[in-house]
Input
Amino acid sequence: MARVYLDADEGIRVPARRIRVGGGEPPLLVYDTSGPPGHDPRRGLPPLRQAWIDAYGGDRIESRPPTRPPEEGAVPASLCRPRVLRGNGPITQLHFARRGVITPEMRFAAAREGVEPELVRDEVARGRAILPANINHPESEPMVIGRRFLVKVNANLGNSAVGSSIDEEVEKLRWSCRWGADTVMDLSTGNDIHATREWIVRNAPVPVGTVPIYEALERVGGSPADLSFEVYRQTLIEQAEQGVDYFTIHAGVLLRYIPLTAGRVTGIVSRGGSIMAQWCLAHHEENFLYTRFGEICEILSRYDAAVSLGDGLRPGSLADANAAAQFAELDTLGELTRTAWEHDVQVMIEGPGHVPLHLVQVNVEREIETCGDAPFYTLGPLTTDIAPGYDHITSAIGAAMIAWHGAAMLCYVTPKEHLGLPNRDDVKTGVITYRIAAHAADLAKGHPAAKIRDDALSRARFDFRWEDQFNLSLDPDTARAFHDETLPKDAHKVAHFCSMCGPKFCSMKITQDLRKEAEALAGMEAKSQEFLDQGGRLYVPAAE
Amino acid sequence: MARVYLDADEGIRVPARRIRVGGGEPPLLVYDTSGPPGHDPRRGLPPLRQAWIDAYGGDRIESRPPTRPPEEGAVPASLCRPRVLRGNGPITQLHFARRGVITPEMRFAAAREGVEPELVRDEVARGRAILPANINHPESEPMVIGRRFLVKVNANLGNSAVGSSIDEEVEKLRWSCRWGADTVMDLSTGNDIHATREWIVRNAPVPVGTVPIYEALERVGGSPADLSFEVYRQTLIEQAEQGVDYFTIHAGVLLRYIPLTAGRVTGIVSRGGSIMAQWCLAHHEENFLYTRFGEICEILSRYDAAVSLGDGLRPGSLADANAAAQFAELDTLGELTRTAWEHDVQVMIEGPGHVPLHLVQVNVEREIETCGDAPFYTLGPLTTDIAPGYDHITSAIGAAMIAWHGAAMLCYVTPKEHLGLPNRDDVKTGVITYRIAAHAADLAKGHPAAKIRDDALSRARFDFRWEDQFNLSLDPDTARAFHDETLPKDAHKVAHFCSMCGPKFCSMKITQDLRKEAEALAGMEAKSQEFLDQGGRLYVPAAE
Output
């Protein structure tokens, strides 16, 4: 598995992973989010996009010292950006797309997806896709989120007051990207929240999202009632200067919706939602994220930070799915989407949560209708509440379903959900599980590139090319280790059976033997034609 | 978690598991397949159903020495049945149901499901449900498989020539039932195939299925061409005398369908299907399981062994899903279903395999239409081929979907699928994963009993009753262990937070604080009413 580069014109080179395959088959190129290899995390990644930003930015961008000076000791100077960029007016991908400009970012993302750059531009211009790309995060490799494109996966990082260090979080970032996270969110709430983020952004080859209210709350000592728009605004600007690519903003939690949660089994389960609800009630005032949303957008437009409109009133249990509070908030998110678009700010919409299978589809339909088809970014949803310890699975079921119906990005859930902070193994399990859900949806949506890898792996399986089967899989290490458990010898990696059925009962071996009987096969084909001539009932899948 | 017994009239006592819950809530009773506790596997389980069988059997049943005498040494005499039962004509649950008789088995199964016995009788009589209950397996606790009932899960056991001993397989059986398998299939293909099965049946509190062609093939030295109906018939009778409750029979693999698999990416992936295909081609004769199916049914009807019509031509890759061979065979399974019913034999239909999400629903619809609504018993289906090592997850996604649309029983898939023989941990992971898929489907179907446990767990979660949350989960050991990883102290089991968000950012804690502000709440409710009075848009889920 080597890193190769696709040529996307204009000198743009897009990394991909090449998987060598035996059996006379061509190598397979796969989407790769792992970023440039071999870099020292203490120095950060190279600024891939800097020249592009400088070029299209020109005098639209000013360069200036950070609002918040680097912290002595916590972050080495080499990692802090001595200057940050800020647009003189909107500098967003949406701004350019609407004006017919295909940016290098769009070209890069299109090559990754195997589509025309114009499709990316058009979808971004319509608001049906976003390309999160803060001008202060030149290390990121562009990617596009929208339902016409491959389904994306987000992995959450971040320490809480109870565990985890900065080094651990950077390692989790690299680990997440290695296994296929398309974006990461830094949800840190503990100490060193600013420094942790600096480390993450400088090392992130993927877009980074945050929930700024968390840091704002730390600044006022942890009491929601003490929050103010001024503190929030300051936090937002500092994070935008760090290079955060999208912000979750719980601007749809309105004062009048809070009572709708009073009768719910699990009340409010969004951290940001519950913080804002407490602020609203303490002051008996409308949520400042809502009342000042225009100002927020104006700030974001100058950095190209996208908005991810948080679903602060999402259901935290199946009992609360698709009820009044959730859909009332969704209506407001639709209103806020239009405000963001007025400011040329890219926007996506966050979704539930906990939803039984039969109520999944309507969530997508309502989001599309209410929010003008802005990309839907969902957490799961979990399809049952009774399996803590396995919520990566309870939610992968809902995630595959919702992405098939149109959700553009899935926020992963790890096995530790509801129980504790995920460790390295949990992060990997979460990412792989969500890559499965995303890919199952891509297949169901009939994405032309999706099936190639499945078919290559299936042919390898049928031909007993074990090494190919491992290498083509989402997690070659685990596949190989599982095979080794019962058949560790190298010779078994070319054996025409595995320990599941043993040599005599391997159906694939028997089928292969069958096919070797050339004469019989000739007879088979005649028989087959006869069957078909007699009107044998066939089925052609709708997608083909 | 104590074992309790529900009273189902007529002296029938149905085991259940009682989960004690705090917070002033009543205990929760849950379906329990773990069987009588504390029994020595070397002695087998008590014969729960013997008196019932004796009573309804009367002179309809003859008792006689086994066709195959116990093997010296291999199985202790205490475990071998010195006499076996055989009906003088049909002795099946279908036979009784059609005549309006509610058997003790139906009464027992109804109490387990929380439905009226008449519903079980009626569904069995229609052929829309089966109640597998071989009269030579009195140790089994009755359960019903059909789409009007809770979705069931099967776990596969069985050694192959490459691994596993008898003791291991019996331990896997007990382990599977402990975690919630509703039936097990013994798919042994290695040595001691007959003895392994005897041990499994005598210790199985759940119905046991097999694929008799495997043992028949061992008897003829492993060469499919050497098989004959006589060998098969002998095998079938001996297994029916052992007490096997259902037999997978690949009678739909017709000579003329085999050529339809020639162009497939993965040919034939069913072991039984490939064996029969090889036999057909070697002899250029029609599959004897098809031509002699009437005789087979006549035998099965005398023991009440059910038929599970095997899908020998199921797709082994997404590329082969829903294509000609699969649906041609399904048509034949429909024909065979009617033959089984003519003999009063209970029948279910096996289904795929590997199917992309958008082609799942049509599989159920065609099965229902083609096979007269006989219960559909599916393996997964896997919704992508690219994740060996995680196929419990790729398939749980398809399994939840297909069960929601009407599949009655799901055959589990473990993480070792395609790679090797599952060990104890894999079996547990497979069973829990499939319990999740089955439960997600029960919820989506609106099964009245399904939601109770979810709601109880969600309330426990919201109230920070950690021990309740663990105990109400499908796998309390794992949930507790995960929580212990970061917060091992007993005090943390009553803490109002976990390490995921830490104490300050716990949304549930904040919401609880909110609710305590009684005055504010009064204001909330007024606000809420105001919102609703203004025509606030609400959503009522269709199922409620």
Summary: Confidence is low (pLDDT under 50) at residues 536-544 of chain B. The two ends of chain B are 31 Å apart (CA to CA).
